[in-house]
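Please, structure for the following, as tokens.
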Amino acid sequence: MKITDVRVRKVNDEGKMKAVVSVTFDDEFVVHDIKIIEGQNGLFIAMPSRKMGEGDFRDIAHPLVSETRNKIKDAIFAEYEKVLEEKVEEAAEPAKE
């Protein structure tokens, strides 16, 4: 299984949730609403989840093997860094009149 596309759909500068991401596998299957969250020990990914009962959340889709989770995490963070760099470059460009 290969990750064939990572799209950072929404980037937030405020709050703990930094971005919402979609990941496509083998150009055939996509998982939406993976979140990049700022935690106490840095950034981490949270798989799509649903609220169950009194504040508990259960993942809707998630990798079963930690190696797969790491591949997904690395691909997401690489794309997120690109998006952040592009935002910095855009902010640094002088406004055209």
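DSSP finds one helix and six strands in the chain. Residues 3-92 form a domain with the Arylsulfatase, C-terminal domain fold (CATH 3.30.1120.40).
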